[in-house]
Amino acid sequence: MGQKAGPVTIRDVAKACGVSISTVSNVLNGKSNKVSDEIAEKIRIEVARMGYRPSSLARSLRAVSTKTIGIIAEDLIEFSSPSIVEGIMSCCEEHGYNVVIENMRLFGRWHREWLLDETLLDKTLKDVLAKMETLNLDGLIYVGSHEHTVRNLFSASGLPIVMAYAVSVDRQYPTFRLDDITGGYDAIKYLVSKGHRKIGVIAGEYDNTHTINRVLGIQKAMLEERILFDPELVKYGSWFKVGGYEGMKYLLDKDITAVFCMSDAIASGAYAALLERGIVPGRDISVLGYDNQDISSGLTPELTTMALPLPEIGCRAANAVINLIENPGAVSEDIADVRIPSVLIERNSVKQI
Question: How far apart are CA 202 and CA 61, in angstroms?
């Protein structure tokens, strides 16, 4: 095989060593305490053998702090993203940091197609990361539109990176996301506390991470309450109103007294199906939502729901990246992956029986 055309890149070194790009970056930036001595030495040997030369411009720019943090958002039109970004910005303002936001507009460009085609995210992310490297930032926060695994996220100049609402293949990045297992658990515990034991569930897509984890929480709560988990009482579908409408029609003949909807949009569809049959939510059947979106207080009766801790996710992500900037290597293992629970907002759609 011929010699690789062009200069050797950090990606080439990572591939030769069988490690992630961020691991190579850490070693080159004096953070080799994050990897074993053997791996660090292997990286140094390959760097010398391959003739890799980090950008002197990137090194000189990183030597001077600008107190600026970059936010990479998958799409700001997603309901969860603005609140997370607001939490980040609020925290950064308190600590005297500026913020630069790059909106990848994944849904705006490709609707839901990008969820099934990883190359669409990879290409966009590559371009955004290259742009961010030119802005003389001190750190990066990646804001996901939902919980999923992000690949090829790295900083060629060794910027600290923190994840919010998504996870990276490189698990060394501090991560802040929903505790969906506890969310499903708390939802069922609440309904049981109101006397309900025959509980239906209208879920999102069956293979979605949020769905899977909330179902795990549901099963755990039912096991503790000695309620048999019946798969026939769980209807998977979409996260939108149509999913709730179809799911509720499926559950209407199942003799349930309450239904747990995994989003407020789903709950709005469940309301529509119930009212078509002359069944009044909150009186004839209890309905519990999830998300605490604006629609939840606009329904009649107002929807009891679980509020997502979105501003807290953003603020804690910001605190983590600021800590990495000001105290390199100081983030301990116990906050490498933080799951934050949702909070019950009690209104009028769940009755005591």
Answer: 51
Same CATH topology for 66-173 and 180-308: the answer is yes
- Torsion sign (Cα): 138, 140, 141, 143: positive
Give the contacts of 329 (CB within 8 A, at least 6 positions apart): 31, 33, 34
Architecture field, domain 66-173: 3-Layer(aba) Sandwich (3.40)
pLDDT in tens, the chain (353 residues): 444 556 677 888 888 999 888 788 777 766 656 678 888 878 878 887 876 766 544 545 455 678 999 999 999 999 999 999 999 999 999 999 999 999 999 999 999 898 888 889 988 998 999 899 888 899 999 999 999 999 888 887 888 999 999 999 877 789 999 999 999 999 999 999 999 999 999 999 999 999 999 999 999 999 999 999 999 999 999 999 999 999 999 999 999 999 999 999 999 999 999 999 999 999 999 999 999 999 999 999 999 999 999 999 999 999 999 999 988 765 555 568 999 999 999 999 999 99
Distance of alpha carbon 174 from alpha carbon 266, whole angstroms? 32
CATH number corresponding to 180-308: 3.40.50.2300
Can you give the residue ranges of every domain in the chain? Answer: 10-54, 66-173, 180-308
* Prediction pTM value: 0.82
The DSSP bridge partners found for residue 163 are 142, 175
Q: Are strands 161-164 and 175-178 parallel, antiparallel or unpaired?
A: parallel
